[in-house]
Amino acid sequence: xxxxxxxxxxGAAFAAYHATSPESNLYGKPFRGTPGQGKQLTMTYxxxxxxxxxxNLLDVLAEHNVKATFFLIGKFVEQRPExxxxxxxxxxxxxxxxxxxxxxxxxxxRKLRDELNRCKNAIEQVLGKELPRFTVRGEQRMLFRTPFGxxxxxxxxxxxxxxYEPIMWSIWAYDWLEGTTPEIVQQxxxxxxxxxxxxxxxDGGHLVIGADRSPSVKATDFLIGKYKSEGYEFVPLPQMF
Length: 241
Description:
Layout: H1 2-20, E1 40-48, H2 53-64, E2 69-72, H3 74-79, H4 81-89, E3 93-96, H5 109-127, E4 134-136, E5 139-144, H6 155-161, E6 164-166, E7 171-172, H7 182-190, E8 197-202, H8 214-229, E9 233-234
Parallel strand pairs: 1-2, 1-8, 1-9, 2-3, 5-6, 7-8
Antiparallel strand pairs: 4-5
């Protein structure tokens, strides 16, 4: 009985790891940059748009002339369309992060397709044009990031079938945790930078508009300045493909 229980627990832990880990390729290989290669970095932000931190973040990025990728939640896009239009107007990439931010590890095909389509429709209605597509391995694809990194054996297959390239990350700063400060975010990122990294921060919170993301905004200002001074180049995500 103890052996059987251990097998069950071990199997559950194995499945949980591969369902959420950005490093895992068990359920398909997403793009996570080229860690350890070159001196390019790219900034990505999840869960926006969000008061007042998305506009403040856009101000910081404009000061540094850095173009980021924003993985947007569809229901918030509908509530703050002016922020999304500003992102696009200033040359940032807007991308799909589902409509309600469910953990896709537990979602079936119908739910997954509905979440992506509703988010896509929300963004396209706001912008008045289709989501941008980029050349990935010779194919034109939109960009998508799974909420929580969650996926199951069929998730990425369906995502690609719908015309998306799944994007993970190589640096995760846990900037949504309670008690986070700009200094903590900076330290977590700085410990991991190798070049070729996709850096994940958050300009919003997936539950409601209004989550405090000021530490992420302030850390962005510091990190871009620091790594530019060390010879790193901040590039749009598609430039890394």
